[in-house]
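ok so dumb question maybe but i'm new to this and my supervisor (M.) told me to 'just get the structure for Transposon Tn501 resolvase' and walked off. so i did the thing. is this what she meant?? sequence i used:
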Amino acid sequence: MSKHQTVAYIRVSSVQQNTDRQLVGIERDKEFIEKVSAKDTKRPQLKALLEHVRDGDIVVVHSMDRLARNTKDLLEIVEGLKIKGVSVRFIKENLSFTAGADNSMSNLMLTMLGAIAQFERELMLERQREGIESAKQKGLYKGRKASIDRASIMADINNGLSVRKTATKHGIAVSSVSRIIKALKVDYPSST
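this is what came out, is it supposed to look like this??
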């Protein structure tokens, strides 16, 4: 019989962000660290965690918004874990969901806090869009700078590097290289 584990799920929105803050004070046997946005539930480390945990385990998450960005996903993930016999604990919100226990008050709090977090995120995005639109009207917003060096890509293509190898070299999709070639009307075979 294997011992029950305490498993931490840590998520930051980008590779540059630090995970240390979410690990403080969490005693754990294993951790799953995700460095991607939580816009949907298709996250490799979350998937690995969901496959890893067993009946009797405890999943610890710093806060609800680290596990899901909307109430529906949050409720589905927590309920799925509870059905597997896995308890869930959120540090920031000081909420625990024990497998096998029907705690109506905790479920209500999860739903309400999840909805509030989703609402706050949507408000923040709305304010961001309004700010960008205002800056555009004043001529102050030009968008972000292109992260693709078209000249370097075209130099590679002109030097005989294939579309696929050029894409790999620059860390972009084959379709992006193809679009650049098409936009610059370069005659190049479409095979990669």
